[in-house]
Design goal:
By secondary structure, the protein is α/β, with parallel strands linked by helices. The chain has two domains: about 220 residues, Rossmann fold (3-Layer(aba) Sandwich), CATH 3.40.50; about 60 residues, rRNA adenine dimethylase, C-terminal domain (Helicase, Ruva Protein, domain 3), CATH 1.10.8.100. The chain is about 40% helix and about 20% strand. It is built from twelve helices and nine strands. The strands form two sheets. Strands 4-3-2-5-6-9-7 form a seven-stranded mixed sheet, with helices on both faces. The protein has a two-stranded antiparallel sheet with strand order 1-8. Strand 3, helix 5 and strand 4 form a beta-alpha-beta unit. Helix 3 crosses helix 4. It is elongated, with a radius of gyration of 21 Å.
Amino acid sequence: MLSNALSLIGKVMAQIDDLPPLREVIDTHGLRAKKALGQNFLLDLNLTARIARAAGDLTTHDVLEVGPGPGGLTRGLLASGARKVLAIEKDQRCLPALAEISAACPGRLEVIEADALELDPLAHLTPPIRICANLPYNIGTELLVRWLTPADWPPVWDTLTLMFQKEVAERIVAQPGSKAYGRLAILAQWRCDARIVMTLPPEAFTPPPKISSAVVHLTALPEPRFPANAETLSKLVATAFNQRRKMLRASLKGLRPDIEDVLRSVGIEPTRRAETVSLEEFCALDRAIR
């Protein structure tokens, strides 16, 4: 099996190496990045290959990629041996460039022109599934929250390997007591192991964004770390952090008239602020409120 996988990867890499450089692809197809679509293209194929490797062994997985643009990461995923890549691209201008990659890797790349917020990709994927993407900045956080809050857990995906603005990545892995700690940290760490695996400077992109970017790798846990209800926990955490400067007795008073007593019942002083409350404490508070 290993020798077959290595043979496949070598063959695919040779096919991909025959494709034109990404800068040439951009010039040929007139692919100037659009700010309205949250586009910043990563053209260094060494970097896109590193991101693909950070997603782990892809030879037995279908991979969902959102916002492939001219296909830099798409090439890396295919060269890493992904069983299949489903690329969802909203920008029609990018489709010819992606078609060139598809022609070089017959049967292993499916491209759908669609808004990722409006498409259910499951009909086009076969488990096991991994998600790996340089997400458009304007929809990245919303997609992450959707992937972290499905109706059933474990989710359909095994891992998420996603690029965000660095400040968003830091919010995902943040710990209690830090300014970055908030709803994203709770939702991610309740059900996943999350870590930053790469940081990229602005000049790695075309056009360069104003801030650095980072790649976060999240591995789905079989069960959440602590018992809680996904819907009510999300509401509780959002309410607490919407007024993070206020004491909990004030920020949460709309949830229960006796919120001070409920907080004390789980060992949380009502005068504390949300950023000091651990994941375990939030889960205990969710159970008490319900």
